[in-house]
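Field guide to reading this record: the first block holds the primary sequence, the second block holds the structure written as discrete tokens, and the final block holds curator observations. Each block starts with its own label. This record concerns S-formylglutathione hydrolase, catalogued under organism Linum usitatissimum.

BLOCK 1 — SEQUENCE
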Amino acid sequence: SSSKMFGGYNKRYKHFSPTLGCSMTFHIYFPPSSSSSQKKFPVLYWLSGLTCTDENFIVKSGAQRLAFADGIALIAPDTSPRGLNVEGESESWDFGVGAGFYLNATQEKWKNWQMYDYVVQELPKLLTENFPQLDTS
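BLOCK 2 — STRUCTURE
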């Protein structure tokens, strides 16, 4: 999906994550740029907290106004794997789906909760390979 905001665009993407074993979504706010500009946008990652999704920050914060002013791209990944149907993943608001701890699970039952690896390794690589206008360094 895509929506215009503060001269740029909020775009939501979905991809299959080999790290997590499921589809994941993330948002990017692209500030405006001239078509002749070769400048890459520096990236700021926003990691939402408990009970959130990739949409909370993008929809509610208004941070795009500041990102527009400074020419920064905002990246907001989802907070956890979804749709894996692990027993107990939705029984508590502070554990499992939507928990947003961005750590790698150590117990076999939660083997797909490898959010540290996803955020630190997989997502930046995916952004670099697919969005040449972003400076993920």
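BLOCK 3 — OBSERVATIONS
The chain has a mean pLDDT of 92.
The CA atoms of residues 51 and 114 lie 17 Å apart.
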